[in-house]
């Protein structure tokens, strides 16, 4: 219990963290690989506090043509970094950079 109190107190003391990175998560409905990748991103987000924008590629014919069956596609700060699977070690290395 004291640990929870200290975390809340510290969070109030330093204020909300600003997101350093912007992640665009290209996905589609019913994609189990996308679900797994999103869980990995959400886990990393607890530590690194970034913004995630989800984009359903089926809403745009250009994105369907561009990414097709490669989803999930993860772009970090505008650069595509992962297709299909996320490498957690590489993700952490990228997110540690300012």
Produce the secondary structure layout.
Blueprint: H1 2-14, E1 22-27, H2 32-48, E2 51-56, H3 61-67, E3 73-76, E4 79-83, H4 88-96
Parallel strand pairs: 1-2
Antiparallel strand pairs: 1-3, 3-4
Nearest-integer average pLDDT: 87
Radius of gyration over alpha carbons? 16 Å
The 3D shape can be described as elongated
CATH topology: Glutaredoxin
Taken in chain order, the helices and strands follow as HEHEHEEH
The CATH superfamily bears the name: Glutaredoxin
CATH class: Alpha Beta
In terms of structural class, how would the helical and strand content be classed? alpha+beta
Proportion of residues in extended strands: 15-25%
CA-CA gap between termini: 33 Å
Task: Estimate percent helicity.
Answer: 40-55%
Beta-strand segment tally: 4
Main sheet summary: 4 strands, mixed
Q: Name the assembly state.
A: single chain
Please, how many helices?
Answer: 4
Question: Can you put this structure into words, describing what you see?
Answer:
The chain is of the alpha+beta class and 98 residues long. It has a single domain (17-96), classed as 3-Layer(aba) Sandwich (Glutaredoxin). It has 4 helices and 4 strands; from the N terminus they run αβαβαββα. The chain has helices at residues 2-14, 32-48, 61-67, 88-96, and strands at 22-27, 51-56, 73-76, 79-83. It has a 4-stranded mixed β-sheet with strand order 2-1-3-4, covered by helices on one side. β3 and β4 form a beta hairpin.
Structure at a glance:
It is built from 4 helices and 4 strands. The protein is α+β, with helices and mostly antiparallel strands and 98 residues long.
